[in-house]
Amino acid sequence: MQRYFINQNQINESIITISGQDAHHIKNVMRMQVSDQIECIDEAFVYVATITALGRQIDCAIDSKRAVYNPSQASITVMHGTVLPNKAEDCIKKL
């Protein structure tokens, strides 16, 4: 499913309006049709939406909405094997 980034001002109740390069991409590059589904992402939510109208602007009806996963809450642990002392600095730089 294709994902498109949107601003909060593109959402009007249960309709998402997409224009500009994203509308061109949906219509001409991906050749999507009415009733195809896309994902639209803003700062807080991921919306699964169905295309309802194609034109210069694309209108989509919101089917579902879920919170965006916040990657800053993830913890990362990095380990590397023993290396020669002159190579350890290179390993740290690459991390």
Give a concise summary.
By secondary structure, this protein is an alpha+beta fold.
Report on the architecture of this protein:
With 95 residues, the protein is an alpha+beta fold. The protein contains 2 helices and 6 strands; from the N terminus they run βββαβββα. A 6-stranded mixed beta sheet has the order 1-4-5-6-3-2, with helices on one face. The protein starts with a strand and ends with a helix.
Question: Which short descriptors sum up this protein?
Answer:
95 residues; alpha+beta; six-stranded mixed sheet; 2 helices; 35% strand; elongated
What separation lies between the terminal Cα atoms?
A: 32 Å
| Stretches with pLDDT under 50, minimum 5 residues | none
Please outline the major beta sheet: 6 strands, mixed
> What is the approximate shape?
elongated
SS strand fraction: 25-35%
What series of H and E elements makes up the topology? EEEHEEEH
- Count of distinct strands: 6
Return the average pLDDT rounded to an integer: 90
Topology:
Blueprint: E1 3-5, E2 11-12, E3 15-18, H1 21-29, E4 37-41, E5 45-53, E6 58-67, H2 85-94
Parallel strand pairs: 1-4
Antiparallel strand pairs: 2-3, 3-6, 4-5, 5-6
